[in-house]
Amino acid sequence: MTLLIRAATLDDHDALITQIWTLNCFEQELTHDRRTDLAGARETLTDMIAAASRDGALLVAEQDGTVTGHLCLLFQSDDAYVIKELRDHALISSLFVNEPWRGKGIARALIAHAEAFAKARGIQRLRLFALSGNARARHIYEEAGFSVQGLDMVKPLTS
Question: Which of 53, 112, 147, 155 has a CA positioned 20 to 30 A from the CA of residue 121?
Answer without folding.
Answer: 147
